[in-house]
């Protein structure tokens, strides 16, 4: 049985099993309500255009535990509504909340149609991230971004970080490699650490997920550093099916309640739980192909030698439904695609199931589980050593294999010979990454009183990844590493990482109204999480060709490492508002962590915020009409969040090594009894404005953040004989502006146009190192270019030899270890447009950009070193001719590293998409709605650099350390994708 047919059977069997379980039998979908209750039906539309609004939430009497959603025609059906005077409430992202009173008669059906008013500021949305419970955004002093189900469903993105790339205005997310499933750089409000990565904390249904914040100490060397390069990404393999919404808060004041691991922000993902009413389902087919972006290749021939159009297909299906007692949701997907390299296939399978059930009249259970697995090839890149196809072609190294390195000028016979050589190299590479992720969440809500809500959440996330590299003797011979007849140079390398995270969270929220004007929402809670990261490597040498396991190899070896950390936290927060006009937030969290030193007490993180709804003041309305200034809000907040040290860094250890077949003890790490987390305090101020009846909105923000007690590996006194030890001795500062705007210039029954944009600035600097000398965190040897940490400079700035030239082209001076640039941009942002034509056709586009960053290209340097035609002008001829270089390129290229550093400004169109909802008379039999969409991902890009400014594989994805990038070296760029999607609802 093939893998694909096995998956099909698993998915079909799972669907049939769930269809046969109690959620569907609890009440026949679509059955009539009990005679004691009534039904409410109706339609929700846009108040200006009259266009139906799918996905709006509808519920009665503010009871959001009994929510239904409108279908693609904006229609809803709310069952089991108690008789009497009721308020039907409607909420939707981007629109003002609206309520409609109605009288319900037992056993009867009432109709309520609701037209929503646009409100792009989205202040009425209810969010939970960073709040300890549900609170309206209107009362929050910090930034919260929400990605709705509609945006998720309409997006052509194939992975979650690709979706978030243009949907989080204050974050920069860069996919730094075109290889599937590799990690991305995620940066919000600067680089807060040199010892921890920049990935936000990720939650799914309240359970912490693996975000690769422990060091990948063992791994497959496909990029020159096992902890860098084409590492697998935990966020990339999270399935996108069945996501209800995503909330994101940047680090600092917004993340205080998450404590010692949240300085980079929090991404919280909420999955669908089903809804009341009859069973609803969907089936979606997505097909297309990936084609390489070749505009940054130096040689035109590279496209034909190394790449192809890789076809892809994805099948997704899901059902949801329920009644007043129980709801359910199930979805699954199968994915298969060809690599856009000449060889290699990718495959994936996943499903998610969620159930909600009432527990008496005051309780509710919500549970979910998901499983996802991926299997992808890896191709050698960068400084991996040995044969690397892209380096051989683009860096001019094909001359070492007997070919003219000006591959665009090859004769037809020479081109055929090189193609055979490269294709054999690709065909015989056998490097693959397999991941398997399981997540389950269980939450019980109990509301003993109308003003009190409590909850308890327990869940776990297990993520297993296996990297396997098989190097055959045939590969060694084909790439001319060893002569014909070699039989003892085959190797097998396996690297396994098994991460398990446990989360337990309890909390309560009390809402109190004091008179008619003052309200207080108080949240308290406790959290425990534990992360276990166990890594194992087992390798073999002198392996026969054809072997897939290490058994029978000439020599076998193994090693393992383990990281374990537990964190305990208590938090409390009070949100006090007078007339919903003057609001104050006060919060506090205290943490203990097993990575803290023995003499380090509980770490306390405070938070304070203020909100002034100045637009609600009568004197403001007397100055500016509400038709001109629809809303105006001022906010300010200060808060502290942290990042804990790596596990066991606080312990004093002895290192045991093997010596002459015996065990030998040496000094390990000296330990640090006073080790504590890095603390990032952030002050943010901002204003939110809406104009012309909310046709235009503007968000203005400024933040300044300082990380104190920054974790730095400090050298000991030479007399101790000890190794370096991590210590809290550094300070790092970040500051910047955050601007965002939305405008709807046209909105009527026929046309609706919305434009949005974001602009962010960033200034990052290392303020103190506590006497620690400058040190590298990325890059290569000191004789070339490294990413450095030094007082007074940005984290990871580029350092190397800088040549100063005279007017005649001769070298005036060589500055050793000079500043060559910085990989972090001065400004970045995104923009987009959505055009609706009638009620069925939607056209959208999204883009992002950055300015003010630099990166170094080893490909360009090597082309010069190896004498590729057209590169002789890279270094002035007069400089090459002068002593001591004497015309020898090898003697000068490392002395002129500044010539290989370029600005990496870019503007990239990320997606273009056309979506059409079919009219009823064209629907296939048995379907309630159908949509067809065509999308192009990465259709166009402008860049100031000669190389791909985003392809930053080497050092870009270092886990367990700062990930800032700055190097371009024989790395695949992200492909351009063409996708056709058909979605059917029934």
Name the average pLDDT: 86
Number of helices: 12
Rounded radius of gyration (Å): 29 Å
Helical residues, percent: under 10%
Shape: globular
Biggest beta-sheet profile: 22 strands, antiparallel, barrel
CATH architecture of the largest domain: Beta Barrel
Provide the CATH topology of the largest domain: Maltoporin, Chain A
Uncertain ranges: 1-33, 225-230, 955-959
* CATH domain class name of the largest domain: Mainly Beta
Q: What would you call the structural class? A: mainly beta
How many β-strand runs?
49
Please indicate the percent range of residues in DSSP E strands (runs of 2 or more).
over 45%
Instruction: Kindly give the count of domains.
Output: 2
Structure in words:
- This is TonB-dependent receptor.
- With 986 residues, this protein is mainly β.
- The chain folds into two domains: 32-117, Immunoglobulin-like (Sandwich), CATH 2.60.40; 138-277 and 284-762 and 824-853 and 904-980, Beta Barrel (Maltoporin, Chain A), CATH 2.40.170.
- It is 9% helix and 49% strand.
- It is built from twelve helices and 49 strands.
- The strands form nine sheets. It has a 22-stranded antiparallel β-barrel.
- It is globular.
- 50% of the residues are buried.
Q: Quick summary of this structure?
A:
With 986 residues, the chain is mostly beta strands.
């Amino acid at each position: 049985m093939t893998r694909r047919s096995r998956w099909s059977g698993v998915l079909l069997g799972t669907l049939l099993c769930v269809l046969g379980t109690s959620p569907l039998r609890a009440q026949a979908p679509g059955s009539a309500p009990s005679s004691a209750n009534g039904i409410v039906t109706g339609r929700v539309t846009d108040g200006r255009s009259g266009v139906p609004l799918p996905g709006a939430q509808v519920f009665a009497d503010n009871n959001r535990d009994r929510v239904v959603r409108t279908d693609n025609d904006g229609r809803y059906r709310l069952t089991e509504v108690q008789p009497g005077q009721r308020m039907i409430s409607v909420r939707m992202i981007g629109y003002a909340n609206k309520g409609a009173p109605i009288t319900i008669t037992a056993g009867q059906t009432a109709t309520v149609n609701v037209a929503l008013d646009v409100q792009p500021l989205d202040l009425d949305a209810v969010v939970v991230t960073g709040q300890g419970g549900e609170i309206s955004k209107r009362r929050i002093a910090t930034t919260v971004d929400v990605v709705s189900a509609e945006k998720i469903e309409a997006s052509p993105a194939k992975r979650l970080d690709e979706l978030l790339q243009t949907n989080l205005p204050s974050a920069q997310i860069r996919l730094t490699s075109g290889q599937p499933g590799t990690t991305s750089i995620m940066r919000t409000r600067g680089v807060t650490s040199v010892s921890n990565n920049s990935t936000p904390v990720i939650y799914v249904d309240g359970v912490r997920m693996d975000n690769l914040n422990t060091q990948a100490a063992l791994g497959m060397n496909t990029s020159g550093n096992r902890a860098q390069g084409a590492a697998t990404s935990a966020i990339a393999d999270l399935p996108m099916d069945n996501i209800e919404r995503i909330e994101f808060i940047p680090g600092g004041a917004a993340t205080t309640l998450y404590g010692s691991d949240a300085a980079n922000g929090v991404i919280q993902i909420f999955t669908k739980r089903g809804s009341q009413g009859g069973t609803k389902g969907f089936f979606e087919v997505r097909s297309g192909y990936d084609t390489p972006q070749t505009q940054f290749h130096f040689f035109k021939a590279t496209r034909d030698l190394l790449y192809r159009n890789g076809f892809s297909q994805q099948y997704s299906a899901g059902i949801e439904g329920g009644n007043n007692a129980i709801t359910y949701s199930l979805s699954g997907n199968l994915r298969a695609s060809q690599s856009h390299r000449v060889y290699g296939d990718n495959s994936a399978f996943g499903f998610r199931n969620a159930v909600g059930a009432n527990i008496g009249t005051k309780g509710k259970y919500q549970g979910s589980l998901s499983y996802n697995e991926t299997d992808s090839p890896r191709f050698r890149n960068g400084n991996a050593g040995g044969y690397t196809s892209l380096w051989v072609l683009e860096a001019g190294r094909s001359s070492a294999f007997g070919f003219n390195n000006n591959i665009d000028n090859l004769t037809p016979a020479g081109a055929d010979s090189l193609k055979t050589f490269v294709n054999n190299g690709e065909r015989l590479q056998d490097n693959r990454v397999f991941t398997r992720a399981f997540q389950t969440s269980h939450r019980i809500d109990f509301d003993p009183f109308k003003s009190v809500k409590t909850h308890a959440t327990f869940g776990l996330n297990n993520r297993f990844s296996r990297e396997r590299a098989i190097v055959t003797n045939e590969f060694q011979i084909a790439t001319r590493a060893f002569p014909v007849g070699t039989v003892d140079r085959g190797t097998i390398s396996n690297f396994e990482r098994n991460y398990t995270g446990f989360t337990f969270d309890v909390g309560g929220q009390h809402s109190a109204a004091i008179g008619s004007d003052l309200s207080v929402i108080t949240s308290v809670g406790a959290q425990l999480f534990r992360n276990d990261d166990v890594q194992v490597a087992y390798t073999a040498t002198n392996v026969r060709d054809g072997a897939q396991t290490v058994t029978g190899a000439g020599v076998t070896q193994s090693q393992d490492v383990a990281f374990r950390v537990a964190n305990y936290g208590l938090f409390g927060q009070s949100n006090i508002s007078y007339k919903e006009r003057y609001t104050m937030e006060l919060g506090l969290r205290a943490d203990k962590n097993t990575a803290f030193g023995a003499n380090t007490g509980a770490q306390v993180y405070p938070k304070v915020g203020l909100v002034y709804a100045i637009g609600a003041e009568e004197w403001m309305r007397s100055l500016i009409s509400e038709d001109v200034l629809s809303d105006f809000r001022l906010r300010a907040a200060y808060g502290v969040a942290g990042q804990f040290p790596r596990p066991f860094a606080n312990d004093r250890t002895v290192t045991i090594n093997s010596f002459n077949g015996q065990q030998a003890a040496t000094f390990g790490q000296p330990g640090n009894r006073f080790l504590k987390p890095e603390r990032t305090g952030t002050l943010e101020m901002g204003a939110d404005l809406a104009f012309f009846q909310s046709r235009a909105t503007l968000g203005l923000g400024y933040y300044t953040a300082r990380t104190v007690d920054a974790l730095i590996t400090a050298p000991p006194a030479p007399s101790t004989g000890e190794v370096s030890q991590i210590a809290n001795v550094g300070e790092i500062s970040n500051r910047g502006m955050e601007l965002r705007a939305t405008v709807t210039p046209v909105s009527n029954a026929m046309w609706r146009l919305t434009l949005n944009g974001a602009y962010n600035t960033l200034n990052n600097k290392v303020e103190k190192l506590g006497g620690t000398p400058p040190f590298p965190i990325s890059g290569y040897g000191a004789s070339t270019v490294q990413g450095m940490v030094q007082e007074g400079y940005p984290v990871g700035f580029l350092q190397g030899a800088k040549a100063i030239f005279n007017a005649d082209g001769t070298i005036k001076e060589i500055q050793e270890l000079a500043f060559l640039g910085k990989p972090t941009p001065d400004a970045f942002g995104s923009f987009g447009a959505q055009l609706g034509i009638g009620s069925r056709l939607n056209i959208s586009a999204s883009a992002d950009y950055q300015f003010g960053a630099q990166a170094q290209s080893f490909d360009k340097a090597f082309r010069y070193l190896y004498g590729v035609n057209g590169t002789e002008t890279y270094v002035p001829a007069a400089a090459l001719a002068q002593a001591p270089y004497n015309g020898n390129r090898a003697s000068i290229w490392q002395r002129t590293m500044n010539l290989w550093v370029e600005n990496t400004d870019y503007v990239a169109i990320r997606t273009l998409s056309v979506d059409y909802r079919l009219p009823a008379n064209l629907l296939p039999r048995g379907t309630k709605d159908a949509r067809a969409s065509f999308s192009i991902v990465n259709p166009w890009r402008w860049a100031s650099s000669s190389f791909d400014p985003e392809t930053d594989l080497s050092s870009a994805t270092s886990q367990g350390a700062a990930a800032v990038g700055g190097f371009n070296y024989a790395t695949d760029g992200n492909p351009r994708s063409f996708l056709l999607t058909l979605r059917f609802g029934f």
